[in-house]
Amino acid sequence: MEQKKPTSSLIISTYNWPEALSLSLKSVLAQKVLPNEVIIADDGSTEETKFIIDSFKNKFPVPLKHVWHEDKGFRKTIILNKAVAEASSEYIIQIDGDVILDINFVEDHLRVAENKTFIRGTRAHLKKEILPSVFEDKRIDFSFFSKGVKHRFNAFRLPSMAWLFTSRKKNCSKSVRGCNLAYWKRDFVRINGYNNMLEGWGHEDEEMASRLINIGVKKKRLKFMAIQYHIFHSVASRKHENRHLSLLNQSLFEKLKRCENGYFESLQHEKAPVLELSQY
Question: Could you report how far apart the first and last alpha carbons of the chain are, in Å?
Answer without folding.
Answer: 45
